[in-house]
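Hey, I'm writing a tutorial for new members on how sequence and structure tokens pair up, and I'd like a real worked example in the thread rather than a made-up one. If someone can provide the structure for the chain below, I'll link this post from the tutorial.
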Amino acid sequence: MKRITPDDHARIAAAVAQAETRTSGEIFCVLARQVSSYRDVSLGWAAAAALILPMLLIPFNFDPAWFPGLGDSWETAHMAARDVTIGKALSAYAVIQAAVFVSVLLITCYPPVQRLVIPRRVRRARVRRAALQQFLAHGLHTTERRTGVLIFAALADRQVEIVADEGIHSRVDAEVWGRAVSALTKALRANRPADGFETAIGLTGDVLAAHFPPRANNPDELPNRLVEI
């Protein structure tokens, strides 16, 4: 992803200031590199693979002798031989499970593969949770008339969220933000983050201006800037 330059920050701050001249609402922007490592998801895939994949060897008459050091030994008694064979089979199976677990864990931690194996609903839920945390952390819920709006983008997760405070949410349908989300998503995909935020801010300002015109006393309650985390 293209680095956000000081000029980009200035452009985004100016876009927020311009949008807020038309409304009593407050707009705040956050850009996150990644909201989660998703290590738990990788561990889940690795554990499932370690339990299931070794069983696929059974139809091929799995033999502990496939592993060096676990075959070709002298067995002098029937009961002893059976115990030794079971022990070798369990040891070989444990080695296979460990190898599968480590291999799948490493593969699913590789970002291009990780994006494929993480369910979309999991990514969406974690990005939404991170957006709500940022909404509260930056005090968007403390505006006088509860008219704060957060534009949140998560780069590695490839998700965009717009969170509106209750004063806006009660009067504006959630689907209204779709154009702003789409514009920012498209620009991020094209590696034009500053352009995307400018467009999304303008579209958000249009929505706010239609429902929340500026008041006679219209203080700027939140900083006009983009926060990178």
